Amino acid sequence: MANYTERAKQSQFVEWLNDNAQVLSIALFFVACMGFFWALTDTFMTTGNLLNVVRQGAPVLIVAVAMTFVIMTAGIDLAVGSIVALINALAAILMANGFDWVTTSLMMVAAGAIVGLAQGWFISFQGIAAFIVTLAGMSILRGIALYITEGYSIPIKDQPGFFWLGRGTLAGIPVPAILAVLIAILGFIIMRNTRYGRQVVAVGSNLEAARRVGMPARWIVCSVYMASGIACAIAGLLIASRLGSGSSNAAVGFEMQVIAAVVLGGTSLMGGRGSILGTTLGALTILIIGNGLILMHVSPFLTQIVTGVIILLAVWMNTRLFGSGFKLGKKG
């Protein structure tokens, strides 16, 4: 007969610290990075620079929110950069052929949902590993974008409403940043306060157990990839509206930034555990590291190396020092 022991009861504050250790660690790392670049550069902590960072980083945060749900199901979506590029190119082509920007945007969101749904169907209903499906998707979708654009950048003209999405401001705050924050809040509410959010956590913890208790586990897995496709479509439209053009070469390396932001924020690659707040802090940390290194005039050839090393150290500290083994108070 199995013997069970009850965990020693601790104060609510210690319990809260233990439950949020990884989010707190990335928050501290974010503050440390801000202080570091503030001390070493004259322009980092200026309003103009910070607004520029959040404007350019909004697409990363939007897709990272959706990627958090994907990784919480123990999956991965390597095709997000290619979906962004395809949507980016398609939107420019449609508007160059006379479609208005509202119709184009709706069509692109639908296209993103279909692409994500197709990937989710192969993963959840055909049993193919997410890594394989999305790796193939990364190649296929980028290839389609290259084929339809023939490698050229497609300019977007006479669409002031569309340009406002990527370049406009509301009360001095860039519109893309406002959209990204709203999507992050929506993701936070869905994960914390809805039945669907709890089902995503359950499926990521143990898919078979979730299926046996009656949850539509396969559909839940499928749905997170569809959400990822929609988020990519929004990101692709924002990049096209900011740059005023569409290109198959957009969002190169985008998937690495997104996955790094999610992992840096404490979401487990094994599934079942994650935080939208942690992802938001992870995305902001990656963005300010890139921006700060540029302002410090670090060689662009070294920037990727330095960024990668910093991210690796941060993730190591987050998992080894503040991971599941980290507990304050008495052990029981």
From TrEMBL:
GO cellular component: plasma membrane
Gene Ontology terms for molecular function: transmembrane transporter activity
Statement: the UniProt record of this protein carries the keyword DNA damage: no
Chief site of localization: membrane
Coiled-coil segments: none
PROSITE patterns, per the entry: PROKAR_LIPOPROTEIN
InterPro entries per the UniProt record, alphabetical: ABC_transp_permease
Protein name stated in the entry: Ribose/xylose/arabinose/galactoside ABC-type transport systems, permease component
